[in-house]
Amino acid sequence: MWSQGAEMDTHKAILRRLKTQPLNEWEKKFWASVSEALTRYGSLTERQGETLENINAKYTDEAKTARAEWTKSFTPAMREIMVLVAKYYEQEGTYYLGTARKVLDDPEFVPSEKQYNAMCRNKYAERVIENWRSEFLYGVGQLVLIRKTSNVYTSLKSTPMVVIEHMPKSLTPGRGANTYKVLPAGRDKSWTFLESEIKTLR
Q1: Which helix (H) or strand (E) covers residue 125, if one does?
Q2: Cα 103 to chain center, whole Å?
Q3: What one-character DSSP code corresponds to residue 31?
Q4: What is the rounded distance in angstroms from the CA atom of residue 193 to the CA atom of residue 177?
């Protein structure tokens, strides 16, 4: 087990080393804060020490090499996925907002591998991309009906409808999210339905 003095010496050495590294804005503020704390109190809290060591690990030669290789391997296809997912999370306003805004504000931004995997390779992001790339099941001019399981527009449930337009894609993880403009038989007003709400007229 380290003595408090040895731990303090280690943290001082890390702080000296990090002073020469290209820290981001948050890391610079944290560096200044723990530098002051170490000078004033002679030690850091366990949480501060762990965070400092995690930052230090980002700037080892091995970590720098790995980051350079990741940046080099970051393809246009990966960027396309990242931008779509960032737009989804921005409109949701919940998770990954910091990363999403960096992506949308800076067309040259390359996230860390950890950031990319967390934001773009979770099940919701994968469904968003799957929906965005999916083909429309029903063509313009095709006859459709509202599904019996649908709880919308019950007055139209047995009415044949013709697809008159494919609506713009939406960024959503919901199944059957493609949207159609349809014209019910005998009506002069068009309606919009999700793919999950309609079926082929047989």
Answers
A1: helix 123-133
A2: 10
A3: H
A4: 9
Q: What is the DSSP letter of 27?
A: H
Count, in order, helices (H) and strands (E) of the chain.
Answer: 8, 5
* Residue 9, CA distances (Å) to 2, 3, 38, 46 in order: 11, 10, 10, 15
Q: Give every CB contact of residue 19 below 8 A, 6+ residues apart in sequence.
A: 31
Q: Which residue numbers in the chain have pLDDT < 70?
A: 1-4
Percent of the chain with pLDDT over 70: 98
Query: According to the model, what pLDDT value does residue 3 have?
Result: 56
pLDDT number for residue 1: 42
Tokens 């965005």 -> residue = 132
- Count of all residues that appear for the chain in the document: 202
Q: What is the DSSP letter of 197?
A: G
How many CB atoms within 10 Å of residue 16? 10
C-beta separation of 23 from 55 below 8 A: yes
Please state, in angstroms and rounded to a whole number, the distance separating the CA atoms of residues 179 and 158.
20
- Which tokens sit at 31? 């560096």
Nearest to 132 by CA among 174, 72, 161, 94: 174
Please, is 125 exposed, middle or buried when counting C-beta atoms within 10 Å of its C-beta (0-12, 13-18, 19+)? buried
Sequence-separated (6 or more) residues with CB below 8 Å from residue 10 = 2
pLDDT digits (tens, 9 = 90+) for 25-84: 999 999 999 999 999 988 899 999 999 999 999 999 999 999 999 999 999 999 999 999
